[in-house]
Write a structure and sequence with these properties.
- The chain is mostly helical.
- The chain is 80% helix and 0% strand.
- It contains 19 helices and no strands.
- The protein has helices at 2-26, 32-46, 49-58, 63-74, 86-114, 120-148, 153-172, 190-207, 209-228, 232-239, 244-253, 257-272, 275-286, 288-297, 305-336, 341-356, 359-369, 372-403, 409-417.
Length: 418
């Protein structure tokens, strides 16, 4: 029950994830390079997740980490009352996402240890739908409010921070079941504490080939996804000149309809399907998203058609991302098996930081050297390659399942799904 209430309050934070770049471009007049930096904050902050994951794994007082994220990452948004510059906005977002890099693996431990594996993704899908419902309602209200009074974005950020803190406080009260044998480590030296997560990450990828393949596919998808992020607000605000309401309708409402309506069903499907097969379908569907942006950019003169194509693009994007989000959060638990999923998920999150150093710069460079259209085309290629590689990995797994006798219930399910 606490997970459900936490998801409701976290929906307010999710609404900011969808609208922060529009606020930056329209209200704070962010330059192109500032949008690029803003895009890099989330993935780069995630780079530290492997260290947070180790701390969480070793701690006997896990609730404190949820409170830390609530205070440092969410409650600090109250400073927005005095916010006047884009630089201040970037600092607040940096605190938010740095704390999220701890919150994500910690929350995964709750799902792994407290929820039966055969209904885990379905439960996650339900909480995700509730979160998206709140996010959609808040996003619509925020868009209308900002069209009436643009400076009210400060109070929207304040409300987001308070709700985010409540969400973290609720998660802190969830008692994590210690059903998995934990590795108890000594304190060691500061050098060991710094280097062990890195060497452990490389060792994990080397030992678990399937998880390494999963991360390779997500890295390909992530390159396409992240490189578009600093470009999209430029296209929507400058080229299409959409209002706050229309921007938020596309990015914050239509883009989340898939999560709202399909997350429980897709969660149930994820429980019954191999992750490689699952992500190959949704990475493939995601190819349509940037291609519709390309088509909309070809329209000349005053026309409603480019706007309608963007709306359609975000509707398809929402369906595709419903599947991607579930796999992004639940896939690492699948590969972890009986091992601590927070370590798998922290590595999963950290790798977004690696591509976050490259992808926004690539998108920005292509914008300046070529055009907006070129960015969308290259992003579509990344999505397509990710889909094809994932499907190839699935076929390899299916072949192995047919040649090696299945042992246990999970293997039988995978063989049936194949």
């Amino acid at each position: 029950m606490l997970l459900l209430f936490a998801a409701l309050f976290n929906g307010v934070v999710q609404s900011l994830n969808q609208t922060q770049d529009i606020i930056a471009r329209k209200a704070l007049h962010a330059a192109d390079w500032q949008l690029m930096l803003m895009t890099m904050i989330w993935p780069v902050a995630n780079f530290f997740s492997i260290w947070w994951g180790r701390l969480f794994e070793r701690s006997s007082h896990k609730s404190r980490y949820f409170l830390i994220t609530g205070i440092i990452g969410r409650l600090t948004l109250v400073y927005a009352v005095w916010l006047t510059t884009m630089s201040e906005y970037l600092v607040l977002l940096a605190l938010l996402y740095a704390s999220n890099s701890l919150l994500v693996p910690a929350q995964n431990s709750i799902y792994q240890r407290n929820i039966d594996p055969h209904r885990r993704a379905r439960v996650y899908g339900i909480t995700l739908s509730l979160s998206m419902l709140v996010s959609i309602l808040v996003t619509f209200a925020a868009g209308r409010l900002l069209d009436i009074r643009e400076q009210s974005f400060r109070w929207i950020l304040v409300a987001t921070g308070i709700c985010g803190f409540i969400s973290s406080a609720l998660l802190a009260n969830v008692r994590i079941q210690h059903t998995i044998r934990e590795k108890i480590c000594g304190q060691g030296s500061w050098k060991e504490a710094l280097l062990e997560p890195i060497t452990g990450a490389f060792r994990l990828l080397k030992e678990d080939k399937a998880f390494a393949a999963f991360e390779r596919s997500f890295s390909l998808y992530g390159m396409g996804f992240i490189m578009m992020q600093p470009i999209i607000p430029i296209y929507l605000v400058d080229k299409l000149q959409l209002s706050y309401t229309n921007n938020f309708l596309a990015k914050g409402i239509l883009s989340q309809m898939g999560l709202l309506l399909l997350a429980p069903m897709l969660g149930k499907l994820h429980d019954r399907t191999h992750p490689f097969r699952f992500i190959s379908v949704f990475f493939g569907l995601l190819v349509v998203f940037p291609l519709l942006f390309v088509v909309s950019s070809l329209w000349q003169g005053q026309s409603l058609m480019p706007v309608l194509l963007v709306f359609l693009a975000y509707l398809i994007f929402g369906i595709a991302m419903a599947g991607v989000n579930i796999s992004w959060s639940m896939g690492s638990i699948f590969f972890a098996g009986e091992r601590d999923a927070s370590i798998y998920q922290s590595l999963h999150v950290t790798l977004t930081g690696v591509r976050g150093l490259i992808a926004p710069v690539l998108g920005y460079a292509m914008l300046k050297i070529f055009s907006i259209t070129a960015v969308f085309v290259v992003a579509a290629v990344f999505f397509l390659v990710a889909s094809l590689v994932s499907y190839r990995d699935y076929r390899k797994v299916r072949k192995e399942l047919r040649t090696v006798p299945a042992i246990g219930r999970d293997e039988d399910k995978l063989e049936a799904s194949a």
